[in-house]
Design goal:
CATH topology of the largest domain: Tumour Suppressor Smad4
Distance between the termini: 45 Å
Strand order of the largest sheet: 7-6-17-14-9-10
CATH class of the largest domain: Mainly Beta
Strand content: 35-45%
CATH architecture of the largest domain: Sandwich
Structural class: alpha+beta
Largest sheet: 6 strands, antiparallel
Amino acid sequence: MRIGIFGKSLSVDGAIYLQQFFDKLKNVNCSLIIFEPYLEQIKNKVAIHCLTNTFNSHEELRDKADLLFSIGGDGTMLDTIAYVRDSGIPILGVNLGRLGFLSSISRDEILPAIDHVISGNYQLEQRTLLKLTSPAGLFGELNYALNELSITKTDTNSLAVVGVYVNDRFLNTYWADGLIVATPTGSTAYSLSCYGPIITPGSENFVITPIASHNLTVRPIVIPDNQEIRLKVGGRNAFYQLGLDSRYQTISNTVELTIQRADFKVNLIQLPQKDFFSTIREKLLWGKDQRN
């Protein structure tokens, strides 16, 4: 089995668990391909016993990996999408960070997780992405997002003004600090912190969520993901910050954006006794009585 490993940074505490990870892989028949900048960070902190290659691009990973471990937190998982893209390579997120909705395998679950993966004892959960279709080339080839597209103001003195059209039908003009268009995966990220609803994977929806709306009666709205969303940016702000997950560009207030569902999905590995409902119960402490 050819196992890809992607990460961005490593803490002192995390090195202990990463060493356990590599020690476990030593006992299975596999070869490794590791993101080269990550390998440079960890090579003097952990001992790697398997045959190891490196990758720096989507093409190198696509041709040399059967699945990918994302080592870090949810931000690390989002960054893996730029390398996995439409290859279909299954991804398992190992959480060495904080909350971890996407990277749901905790430090203490690393070793049994490897056993499940090596034996094929897992299921794949497909996650929808959104795509920024225009303006073309604003983010190069990486014009898609697993979590959300966000527009936020850069001037603190004026509200953002964003007109929204769904399949060319006018929805609303939002006066707010910004606006989020999120996938079901992104419904537990930025959108959730702005009081957006939690949407289960596979729901085939997008959610449009204002950020600190000036009008308190304006609420998030859920629409089918086969609808085209068009955003007209305006207001007194000359420039806005446009985000696709963890990538950002500055745009002018004359830009019109078009958003559609991406034409591919990513495969996330779901281990036994792990699913979306158990993850939100655990991460959001649902059903927990702090008195006990």
